[in-house]
Amino acid sequence: MSEEILAETAKEQALAAMPVEIVAGIPSYNNARTIGHVVQAVHGGMLKYFPDRRGLIVNSDGGSIDGTPEAALKANLDSRSLLLLSHPLYPVNRLTLPYHGVPGKGSAFRALFRVAELVQARALVVVDADLRSITPEWIDLLVRPILERDFDYVTPYYKRHKYDGTITSSIVYPLTRALFGRRVRQPIGGEFGISGRLACRFLNGDVWSSDVASYGIDIWMTTTAIAENFRVCQSYLGAKIHDAKDQGADLGSTLVQVVGSVFSLMETYAPVWRNVLGSLPTPLMGFPFEVGLEPVPIDMERMLSAFQQGCRDLMPIYQQILSPELITGLSRCAALPAHQFAIPDDLWVGVTYDFTLAYHRRVMDTEHLLKSLMPLYLGWVASFARQTERETPAQVEERIEKLCLVYEQLKSYLINQWSLRTGEKRSQS
Amino acid sequence: MKGFWEQTLFEPLRLLGRQALGALPGFLMLLVLVVAGLLVGWLIKEVLHRLLRGLGFDRLCDRKGLSSLISKVGLSHRPSYLVGQVVQGLMLLVALLAGLNAIGTPLTRNLVERFFIYLPHLLAAFLVLIAGGLISRFLGRSVLIAAVNAQMPSARLLAGLTRFFVMTLTAVAALDELGISRTTIIVTFAILFGGVVVAAAIAFGLGARDFAHDLLQSQIHPRRPEPAEDVMRHL
To answer: What is the per-residue pLDDT across A246-303, written as a single tens digit (0 to 9) for each?
Structure first.
């Protein structure tokens, strides 16, 4: 029998709320300023769009010190439909700040899945607690595909500024798409709709004591849903605006957490993705209306200089990771003047694939490996920003599409190299 | 006169001859053991080298970073070959010690005895050097990547200094374990290390007074604007 993760009182409260069809989960950490608005939007969404279905809102808090649970309690109009949980934090959760800013987010999700299983909910919807742009429609868009169209997993689709979410655009989205053959534009969006069946699958996963649960729960869920052939769709939510507070980990740690999780999942699902070529579109729900976007400041000069310094000072490290052709390509890019600076797509994809292979072969300490990617990533952002300076959002999306196609075209290289060991790779190159 | 030559020259020579003849089997045994040690050592080295290479020992060392460490200390051979060579050397050493013991004189016995008393210190010093090498490499790389990501212009210098300090500490610990000029080394190291720290503190105080002022002020009243990429949402 698996260990019980809910406290006895929480279990009783959840059971008392039955029958429940929709569970809405809100993992939080120091979100007193926004959680009231989020709870109201969720509550309003349930009442407006699913008046005949019983809902339960669950706030799983990671030990906030600003009165977040109290703020959630105050905002809810019907206290019988609100369940307050506090997910356990392990010492490592307290020591390392995750990129999403919610320590122990994995534990929060686990508790939410357990509640959904306990009350036998048909749908679980999860939203961030720091959202300013959430509206009641989001609940409809994330839940209806599950209840009425038999989808198992709904990911968000946002309109974002071209410089917003560049790790997603340059690595996470194209790599996940090329690996598993499904085009899910925001694999780590933060808002999800999950069927009861998939919530049970997640709950029974053996991931809960790993780093992936602590720092990569979003990408783990998306990858699991796609790789295990659950029915996945996307819902257009408009713009996503967060509360302007501390965002979480610094860029280096974010790369370690997010990209490390993607690389780690590549190991888990290697037998799946090695048989996939090309990609298929994922259905998009909702009407993709235009929204005004906040400008994103970008310091191209500083990013370019980070790239150049990386190519100069970290070259001995890159020589252990990248093939000689890529080293030559990077050196050539680093020597370009700022107004001509560009990293070609095939070079960037080669760099990403060689990093995945170096991670797979444990060429060096994984944290060193992933942190050394930062100057190259900043170089890609600088190159992307320079090339898209005057481009419209549609043109930028086309450019990302082209990058994705290069990822797909060069995937055979990754497949061929994956089973080779370091020595064999060295002798081949 | 005859008695004089007999007493001062021939008798000691005869004694020496008798002693040499008595020790001859021991010396022959030493020779035989050394030759056998060389042959057996060579054989074991070849077998071990091939066996380890076949089992993927070199690839394991590549993954764990040992191969790179070996090449950094100037050895160009693969780890499996080096293990074979070390075992060959040990075989030769054992044969030599057994041979010396076989001679059976108080001097050789004493030599063998002292070697065995010293052996644990030698092994400990060797392990300290290996651990220090690995730690210095790991910390050096950590500092290098962190400094490059923070865009510090002297990243390589900082990483080099880190490696140098760790290796210096390691060398001092290893020499201390071997008991070589223990007091002199520790005092020299303390003076040098203390001197470097004081010099750095003075240099920082004099040369970077404004920087120190700004740094302290930014810690107490942080007003520094965030660089653009730090306010970007990368995900």
So the answer is: 555 688 888 888 999 999 999 999 999 999 999 999 999 988 887 777 788 888 899 9
Q: Tell me whether A131 touches chain B (CB under 8 Å).
A: no
SS (H, E, C) A205-233: CCCCCCHHHHHCHHHHHHHHHHHCCCCEE
- Are A254 and B68 inside 8 Å of each other by CB? no
Cβ contacts of B229 on chain A, cutoff 8 Å: 251, 298-299, 302-303, 378, 381
Token representation of residue A426: 């060295």
Which chain B residues have a beta carbon less than 8 Å from that of A320? 68
Element (DSSP H or E) covering residue A192: strand A192-195
- Residue A313 neighbours by CB under 8 Å, 6+ apart: B144, B147, B148, B155, B156
What separation in angstroms does the CA of B84 have from each of A81, A322, B36?
71, 31, 17
Q: What is the reported pTM?
A: 0.80
**pLDDT one-digit tens code per residue, B128-184:** 998 898 899 899 999 999 999 999 888 999 999 999 989 988 988 898 888 887 777
- Identify the DSSP state of A79: G
ipTM, two decimals: 0.86
Helices (H) and strands (E) in chain A, counts: 22, 10
